[in-house]
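User: Predict the complex with fructose -6-phosphate.
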Amino acid sequence: MCGIVGYAGTAEAGVQSLDVVLEGLRRLEYRGYDSAGVALQSGGELVWAKRSGKLARLEEALQEQPLPAATTGIGHTRWATHGGPTDGNAHPHLGGDGRVAVIHNGIIENFAALKNELTADGVVFASQTDTEVAAHLLARAYAGTSDLVEAMRVVARRLEGAFTLLAVHADVPDTVVAARRNSPLVVGLGEGANYLGSDVAAFIGHTREAIEMGQDQVVVITPHSVEITDFDGHPAEGKAYHVDWDAAAAEKGGFDSFMAKEISEQPHAVADTLLGRTDAAGRLVLDELHVDEALLRHIDKIVVVACGTAAYAGSVARYAIEHWCRIPCEVELAHEFRYRDPVVNDRTLVVAISQSGETMDTIMAIRHAREQGARVVAICNTQGSTIPRESDAALYTHAGPEIAVASTKAFLAQITACYLLGLYLAQLRGNKFADEVAEILGQLHAMPEKIQSVLDAMEPVRRMARSMADTRSVLFLGRHVGYPVAMEGALKLKEIAYIHAEGFAAGELKHGPIALIEPGLPVFVIVPSPRSRDSLHAKVVSNIQEINARGARTIVIAEEGDDEVVPFASEVIRVPATPTLLAPLVTVVPLQIFACELATAKGLDVDQPRNLAKSVTVE
Ligand code: F6R
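Assistant: Here is the predicted structure with fructose -6-phosphate placed in the model:
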């Protein structure tokens, strides 16, 4: 997720805006980024510098070619979404005659239409970003109004999607203007200086007094003032608060660990992955998917290759893809794929799922697949990484950088992207009518709110986890899409709490694993919706009865209102009613929180579990 800093100070304070902005960007490094840039307003001119790579590269460039003294400035660390991580795509982006500079966090959904409009009007774009559209629009609006704040409102009203925009203009001294919708922005209140940041870490070294901006608001800061309005110019207010975190806690947004923070970000990860995927007529469009449509119509098999959590995302997707598209779909651990001499050819679509895009096992699998003539689509969270580069097409998840080693928000974003791919294929191949696709898309868009409602009700799960710090073994059971969720729940517990855990298909229980059940053994059971088909629900309720009868501690994750499970459950964790195929987006959340809280209670380093690396770049 991009990092954003803005600063408006005075010459009397003797502070250079460049120093404040770079310090802020350094404190935001934890968010992850692949390029960085600054723009300063200095003596009626705009000066700027930007580089791909780490902040150190930008700082080297600034040493070679120093910028003039300035007391107003903005800075940005970019996590690439539209366009790779290059110098040219780094922020700031300049509008019009280069007198306005804009930085941006988020995704402008209607950028393609706006870009076409501007291009038709003679604007030449210097980057592949959606941000540059906002920069040109702002320059034009300013030319019409000579009022930077009003110009920002004009632009904000035209944009759809998620954005935090910050701008400085050569003609407007001591002023930074910003707008936000669906993307974070906080104001820092100083003495003779004010600040903007994507979170308080950006200015925690200077002030602990902050204002959280509301939705659809514009703010203008000068050294001595902060003014907030809505997008129509009516006065508005943010929420003032005092920050009592230290710098390390500020990076984690007040959470104990990055993992806890990332779990809390999951509604956004899903919502952002869904952003910008429909056209004006409501049809699903996957612009990034540059694979010949005729080819996609003729594929006769899909093979998902991935490792660990990403493979479980693929296993969830398989149920949806086969159901919606009627194409056989296999899921294969990437490191096993090429060794079994798989049958793939030019009618096979290989889907490689990877958060990092650098997992060597998955890279080797896609190389093998392409050698056999298969087309490869990458579902990836990291722009410019190897897996999307070596694939025929990429569909990016927009979870933002994941810092904790254990994958959480990337998992939900991967599942979401797979749903989009499945629906797109179903639409393209005529397996689903447009209204059916629209209905499922509507259900998907309702998921972030449902995930949030699960997050809001997790205190009993946390209490239970804390009381189970001495547990030696935990089992997880599920059927249908609940099966990969059970596997994922077990993996989370193994990797961060170092507890023996197994995930099983519930139907497999009586073929062996039931022998493990002994009095008091905690067993999580993921129960499908009672509205699901083929007596799936009844079968899982029978499984709960079987293990309950043998004395296990049955911890049941069930839909609100599902009372059939209650007599056999030691504990019931409720999730909102959800269409069967989309349920993993909510049922996995209590399992992530259980593992995270239990590991924390054991005093373990949740973010950096032993023996593990975030990106596994060796086979
Ligand atoms: C588990 C976890 C791993 C990764 C796996 C693949 O929490 O994070 O199992 O899912 O190593 O990594 P990526 O998605 O980067 O290819």
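The CA atoms of residues 278 and 285 lie 5 Å apart.
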